[in-house]
Amino acid sequence: MEKKGKKRIVLVPVPAQGHITPMMQLGKALYLKGFSITVVEGQCNRVSSPSQHFPGFQFVTIPESLPESEFERLGAFDFILETNKTSEASFKNCLRQLLRQQGNDIACIIYDEFMYFCGTVATELKLPNVILCTQSATNQAARCIFSKLNLEKFLVDMEDPELQDKVVESLYPIRNKDLLPYGLGPFEPLLEFRREAINKRTASAVIFNTSRCLESSSMSWLQQELGIPVYPLGPLHITASAPGSSLAEDDMSCIEWLNKKKPRSVIYVSVGTVTQMESKEVLEIAWGLCNSNQPFLWVFRPGSILGFDGIDSLPEEVSKMVSERGYIVKRAPQIEVLGHPAVGGFWSHCGWNSTLESIVEGVPMICRPFTSEQKINATYLESVWRIGIQLEGEVLRGAVERAVNRLIVDDEGAEMRERALGLREKLKASVRCGGSSYSELEELVKHLKIE
Ligand code: UDP
Predict the structure, then answer these.
(1) Tag placement on the chain: N or C end, fewer CB within 10 Å?
(2) 29 lines ligand 1 (CB under 6 A)
(3) Has this prediction a pTM greater than 0.85?
(4) pLDDT at position 318, please?
């Protein structure tokens, strides 16, 4: 039974790992501050065994008109647009029911920026609402700038190499060409999604999973631009860790394997939970890793190689070599792996969660981004924090081998590790009492109680 008088926060995550995890961490942080938490989920990609991992949370499922299979057919952004259109009515019913059953105890709806239908419903029911951005603040700032451009003129400008490389004023070192969305399917649904998300925004504040010490200029820029309070509370996984938000099971056997390796000798390879790679690139990575003579732990997520089932469907010679020299899993306990003393570097697609997790463990990275959002993170890792080596263009085995050796063997890698460890300390300080993320959380709690 909930204690009487507790205010309720309704959380609405996107059904994808990189979005669910920070939302559940935020829920945990607010639960510890005395709020009741209700998580509203769709039918697909639900948090497994929620009552075991999140005692005290209420989970509610809203019927979804779109089955998971539609994701494949429609592509990510058409799927999101459709979800936003079809979820409005059922979400409204769900909230009405919650209000009836539990009294008018909803302090706020906190929704992933991708689920903008929540803003419309909240306004209709006169409920306060706040947005959670699960991507970097710099990425959000880049999107704001892009949305105000004269697109036709910009696309013409982008044919000029000098203009492509021109740094965007107020967003150093992000260049004009980094503003162009890529790697996320067709352009039009993505732009429509961004327009809708802005037009339907009624939120009184925006929460970011970042820390001022990582992205201070982007945060200041956003504060001015958005004109509502912004709360950088991250990294949320250390503000309030929330084990159990995994949508799939981790293979813990890799920890045993890591236990037998020398300190800082292993390169951990993972491209997150969504990215798909061309088989040609996978083969070059495989050869490069093997030629580097460094041990590697590689997450081969089913479906992560276009046209292949998994490691066994690679040419026999390669799958044999990879299995002998490295350790392969379908899913790793990533935070534990990054924190293991044997891990010396992280080959990553630079998703925002992976980026934060690597920095918090003081692990430098090889950055191989696949989308514009990941590219912005990679640019920061390489040029602002200077803890990453970015691979651009076609990736060939020689470049892979060199990058691994630069990171694991050379002094350059040791210097990056030093800087990563310095950032790690700053991040840890930011979530401790008196630190910036700690204080921002206090401010957010005040904001939620006042509303
Ligand atoms: N993850 C994990 N094990 C894996 C692969 C991914 O635990 O084998 C987790 C990782 O720790 C991170 C999330 O999945 O929290 C991936 O989020 P990210 O933003 O890095 O990338 P996305 O999957 O959204 O592209």
Answers:
(1) N
(2) no
(3) yes
(4) 85
